[in-house]
Structure formats: C-alpha cells, structure tokens
Amino acid sequence: MDEFQEILQDFLVESFELIEQLDQDLVELESRPEDLELLNGIFRVAHTVKGASSFLNFDVLTHLTHHMEDVLNKARHGDLIIDADIMDVILESIDLMKALLVTIRDTSSDAGIDVDECVIRLDRVSNGTAQAATPVAAPVKPAPVVEKAPVKEEPELDYDAMSDDDVEAEIERLLAQRQEEDKAKRAAKIAAGESVPEAPPEPISEEEAVHKAAPTQAPRPVVATPAPSARAKHEDEDAKAAAPASKTSGSVEQTIRVDVKRLDHLMNLIGELVLAKNRLIKINDDVEERYEGEEFLEELNQVVSIVSLVTTDLQIAVMKTRMLPIGKVFNKFPRMIRDLTRELNKKMELEIAGEDTELDKSIVEEIGDPLVHIIRNSCDHGIEMPAVRLAAGKPETGTITLKAYNEGNAIVIQIDDDGKGLDAEMLKNKSLEKGIITEKEADLMTEKEAFALIFKPGFSTAAAVTSVSGRGVGMDVVKTNIEKLNGIIDIESVVGKGTSLKLKIPLTLAIIQALLVGVQEEHYAIPLASVLETVRISKDEIFSVENRSVLRLRDEVLSLVHIGDIFEVERILDSSEHVYVVVLGLGSSKIGLIVDSLVGQEEIVIKSMGDYLAGIDGIAGATIRGDGGVTLIVDVAALMQMAKGVKSTILLEESSSSVKDKSRASDYTVMIVDDSKTDRMIMRKALESLGVTLVEAGDGQEALNILKQGDKNFDAMLIDIEMPRMDGYTLASEIKKYNRYKNLPLIAVTSRTGKSDRMRGVESGMVEYITKPYSADYLSSVVQRNVNFKAEFL
Amino acid sequence: MSDQLKEIIKKQGRKQEVSLSHSDDVVQLVGFIIGEEEYAVPILTIQEIIKPISWTRVPQTPAYILGVFNLRGSVIPLIDLRVKFGLKPKKHNEETRFFVLKQGDDVAGFVIDRLTMALRIKKTDIGAAPDSVAGDDSMIEGVGKQEDRILTILKVNKLLERDF
User: Fold this and answer.
1) Do A545 and A457 belong to one domain?
2) What is the pLDDT of residues A475-494, one digit of tens each?
3) Which of A31, A495, A735, A786 could be joined to A745 by an S-S link, Cβ 3.0–4.6 Å?
4) Which range of residues forms the domain containing residue A287?
5) ipTM surpassing 0.85, yes or no?
6) Same domain, yes or no, for A369 and A397?
C-alpha cells in the first residue's frame, strides 16, 4: 500500500506540473494550429496521464484522457483542424482532468465526477470533424476505426485477469514508454533550441504510432532500439551545447522536493535566531558603553557582527527556498483571457513579462485571486468592443500587459491595459448615486482618490451584472487581499488611453523590516513597507479642518491622527514643540500618524498573540525586541480605518488636575532627594515641625521611580545636585517632561555655590536654590512659600 | 543499618501504595489568594509560576487584560485576576506571582496576590458550586473543603476563554 501511495504521489506531482504547462500551450496552439511541435507536446501530456492513470486503475480519468488523446491525435495527423469551438471542448476536458486529479489527490479515488458529457462531445468533435474534413472519403468509418481500434485496447486491459508475467510486461512497457517520452521531450527541446533540421520529431511520432499499433506484444524491442541512439544523441548534444544551454537548462538543474512544513519550521527557527541576534546586538551596545576602550571589546564586536551577518544571510537563504516564480500564478491567465475573449466578444491579447520574478510561497498563494479580479476587470471594463476601438483610432485588439519586477525589498506586479481608462468624474457621480460618498467628499477628492473608489465595496460601473463582473465585489476583494499582504496599490489612468495598476508587495511575511516609533513610554512597530516617509514638523503646521487635524505636506493635504488617540495612550509626558509624522500608505490611501519619537529601523519577527488576543483592532501581532520586551506591531489597514473615527485631540491642552483642598498640614507632601543620610535627616528635622508629610529618596533614579508610581501628589521637592546614578539637574529635567509635574516646585539644596551651577539649576527647571549650610528656619520658610502653606496650620 | 534502611524503604513503598490506591479520588490543586479569598486550580493545568516581569500594554482591551509578556520567546497574554473578579487593582509586591496556565493550545498568564500551597483534596470533599453561580457560564468548578478552610476551584478552560 505504501508503495502504491508513493507511486500515486509521484503521479500527482508530475501530472499537475504537466497540466500547468498545458493551459498555456493550448492557448498558444489556437493561434498557431499548424505548430506540430506544440501539438505533440500537448498530446504527450494527455498520453502520459492516460498511461499512468490506467496503470493506477483510475478508470474515469483514463476514460476521459483516452478520448482527449483521440481528438489530439487526429489533430496531430492533420485530420482535424483545431478551431475555437474544438478548443473549447478540449479546454473543458482539461478542466475536468484537473478536477479529477484534485479529487484523486484528496480522496485517492477518481469517483464522483461525471465525464460522460464531455466524452460525448469529444467524440462528436473527433467524428464530426473527421467527417467534415474528409467529405470525399468514402464511408465515415475508416478514419475513426483506424484511429480508435488500437488505442481502445489499452485502457480496457483487465489487469486483474492478467497473469503475473503479463502484468510485469505491461509495467515494463509503461515504464519504457515513459522513458521514451522523456527522451523524446529532451530531443524535442534540443531540436527547438538548436533548430536541428526537422528530423527528430518525425521519427518520434512514427515510433509512437508503431508503439500503439502493437501495444502489448513485444514492446521492448521497439523501445530498445531507438533508446540508445536517442540518449547518445542527447548526451552528445548536451556536451557540445553546454554554452548555448539556455533552452536545455531546465533539465540540468538538480532539485529535491521538500515538505513545506519543514520549510515553515526552518523559517520559525530562523525567526528565533533573528530575535536572538537583535538581543545580542543590544547587549553588545550596552557592554560597549560600559567598558569603553577595553581590548576585548573589539573581539566581541567582531563576533557579533559575524553572527549578525551570517544570520542575515541565512535568513535570506531560507527565504529563497520558499520562493516560487510568479509565473506559477501568471500561467493561468492566458487561458482566462482567451475564455473572456470568447465570452465578451472582444479582441484581447495578454502580454506577460517577468514571470521568473520570485516571491514567497504564501504570497504566491494569496496573490492569485486579486490578479484574477483585476484582469477580469480590465477585460470587462477596460478594453472596449472592437468597433469602438477602431472608431477611436486604436488597434482592434486590446492589449493587457502583466509584468512583475523587483523594486527594493518588494515586488511590483503591474497590470496595464490600453482600454478606455478611468473617468474620475464618472466614478464620483456613480459613488454619489450609490451613496458611497457624500457630495462634500466628492468635491474635495483628488483624481487618485477618485480612482480608488473602484475598491469600495458595492461599487460597480458596469451597467449590467454579467457573469464576468459588475457585482461590485471583486475589486473590494483585491484591496482586502493586498492589504492583508501589507501591499500598496497605485492606480494611474488616462481617459481613452488606458489604466495602469501597480501592486507593491513585500517579499516575505514572517520577518519584516519595521519602523519603531515611540509614544509616551510605549513603543510600536510599523511595517516599513507601509511607511512612505517621515517628517518632523512643528505643532504650528497642524491645521484643524472640521474637527480633524491636517497637515499640508508639499502639494498634498494629509489628514493626521495621533497614535496615542488610537491606542488610548495616557499622556503623562509633556510633548515637545515638534512632533514626528509618519506618512503611511496602504492600498491607495494615505494618512499621517503623529508619534512622539522615532526609535529606529529594525528587523522584526511577527509573532501571534494567541487566540486570546487575536483580532485586536489595530494590532497585527507582536514581536520580541532585543531587550526581551514585547513590542506590538501596528496593523496599518485597521489603523487607517480607526483613524476615521478619532477626533483630533492634538491641539487640546490637558486641563490641569484639580488641586485638592488641603485641610491639614499633613496633606502637604514634600520629597527629599539626597544621597547623604545625614543631610536628609537635617532637612527632615527642619520640616518636621511644620507637620507636612515627608518622603525620602536616596538618588535621582529612586525619586523618579517614586514619582512615576504616582501614589502621592507631591507639593514640592528638595533636591541635592550631586548624587550617584542620576544627579539633580538630570532629575529636574526628567521631571519637567511630565505634564503632571510641570508646576511642581523643585528646590535645589546644594553646596555648589558657583554662578554657573545656579544657572544650570534654573535651566533644568529649579525654582529655588538653597546653598548649604542653611538654617532650619530658612529652609522651612522657602518650603512654605513654595507649597502655599496655609498659615492656620502653623 | 541495612535493616533500618530496608524498613524505611518498605515504609515508603507502603505509603506510595496507599497514595496510589487513593489517587483516583484525590485531586491535586494549587491554592492562591486573590483579595481575601482563596482559590485553586488543578496542578496539571499550571505550566509554571513565575515572579512578575515586565509586560506590554495592549490597547483596545478590557481593563483586566494587562497586556502581553515574553515567556522565553512566546508572547503570552497577562490577565489581572483581581480586576477580573471585580476588585481594585493592586501594586505588585514581593508576593505577587504570574500563574501561567495552559490547556490545549491556549496559554495565558494570570496575576495573583499570593501563593498558598499545593494540596491534595478528596473528591468527596469537593462540593458543587452554589446554585446562584453554577452553570456553563460560571468560572467556578466547585468548592473544596479542607479542615478549617474553603477554597473555590476555578474552571481553567473558562479562565482561558476570551470573553470580550
């Protein structure tokens, strides 16, 4: 059973690969029906699938492919000219074949799909046209009989009834046949590449014909003779043609199939490694700071940079193993265009470029649907009817260009059509009609914003709902899917000339570059792919329009939102005169996000926050930073949505917290910050008599921590200047950063008497400057004055 | 000497037998205090108990979700049981612990005021939750009685269930 599974697996993998190529070949075939090489190739696919499926006892599949083979064989021998109608039937049968293969993959059996109808049609094609093509030929019979008789024998073989020897022989035969086909393919490739005179294809088809005529009897000699020569020839060619190997390169590449799960696991491990690397770099920085000038630092530096370099390389290498050429997705489009051409009665051509461009497997899987919608849209709405095109002086056949290329850390997929283009005014009117936008919004809209209307759910410009489009769902799906990939959509369009759609998608999803921003004491990571630019502006440049903050950035008006308003960040720290604006772009919309500080750019690994916290608005996940802390990753799409509901509070100054009435002397709280216990004691003694509450701190850091906890409301602070860990000046300027303590009187108590010391004190926000030694009364009176001590408590 | 040793080993063996024979109707729990009350969860649902470490606030969540923290490379939600149970939040102190509970793939950390002890309790000593709080929505599995105290046994799957 295991062996069977193995064979089955190989069969499926091979079949799917073959079919992928098939679609494209068939469409090409329609334009060049006389191309024997192409036809042979297609025939061989049907044939191979048939052979293998009969061997594996998939009767339905065998039945279908057998009839396909019939039709194709006729075409190959020139008995049948493939026109669009016949092609429809063939394509339909290939679709069925795909469906069957999928069923086999999922259930290991090919039951459940009805192929009879298609088979009848295939038969009709093969018989009917045979009739039409050779009307003079006497009875209808001969041709089909000749064609069919030998082939029919094959699938009908009853393996159960065969003796072991016969089965053995049959297997031999099938294997030999496969090998021979491979060889033929190779030979054909060489032929195509080197344009060796027409010799090679001819013998092959003959050979196959011979082969078919004598299916079970003595197959070996037939195969055996051509084999060595073919191989010898092939090797010969290979050796000689090493240089111009452009066409043969495919067969030389060595590959190994790996389970995607293993790659995913590898990617996870690399993720961990990247986190560890970030951490190492952080530690290295800390160590560098502390042991500046030490010799071992250089060595440490070297190791850290090697580790970091190798990790990055490793990450890229693993990422590459997950890369697939985008051609995998592109391949299905020629067929789609062809179908649409027939369905819509338009003339269209698809040009594909850059199908070798690679991107992550998970993205390749996600990108297919949006592209289908975009291309269908271009066909249906973009390209005009042939008559209209001619009247407009354009070529009758419309062209849709699909190309992919790399741009920095992203891949760009561009879809151009030379159709009628988007009419901004028309789009606005339609949206007004459907109530998607208001009149006011319509007036303010730029052309680009109007183009972006096509992505609104419920929007459709099609006059009638067709099977192709017009339901107003498709482009909405495009936007959602692209945003899910952190991609950006850019539309350009000229009325009458055409439309160009650019999708810019990051190369990979698991590890991303992020911009780290700070707001108050929190940090957030914004995917760099969505960041267009960052600007530093002064608060005066922010205007308020209809309760929303906006910024004039060059020629654009950018609406602004404060990250703190979106993420409910408490405003403890006083913000400075200047703010940073991170301009975010996603899909086709833009917004300015105000942050307090820009921390830097870092490579981050996206981690999920588990089911418990899944789907939090505005948060895409979390990452672990170099210091071991967790930083949340902003979901830019959701953030833009949330920004619409946020009122501007940027300009609102916080109302000062209501000062509680003091009813007792002990309601006053004063903090004493000094590293000397004796000094603290002296101050305590001086103030105790007032009856105020006293809190002591041994240095600036400790004092700041006490303030941060916010347990007590302090009315004044006595601060020594010279202290370990954090001195008085630093402490004072740190305290002044907090809104809450802006008006807290800070009194310096120090033995430094120089003028410059006093100046520094004032600069850092101290209101009084007491020099040691001082009298207890003096200290007491200064404190009383600064806390507005009520005389009745004395 | 060796006789003594044998004796001890024999005793231990007997003890084990005794505990084994009872293991069916004994539940192992870990007790902890939130506010004034003692609660308990089955010992096997506890992945680990750690001292408080720093966490990151997550916006747009109820007040009882403090945020997320990094537990050896995993990002895990942190829930303050005081707030969840309607008490005022309290500053973390020396006795505060994070209980990391796990069931299936769901993991979360819970802030508790103080650990008490691991204990074995007979199934027969566990009463059903009072009618007023029983039911599928209740977080209470049952009420355990031991000597002079009563502890509320919590449903871990309910604790780990997102309810916002």
Assistant:
1) no
2) 777 887 887 777 788 888 88
3) A786
4) 260-321
5) no
6) yes
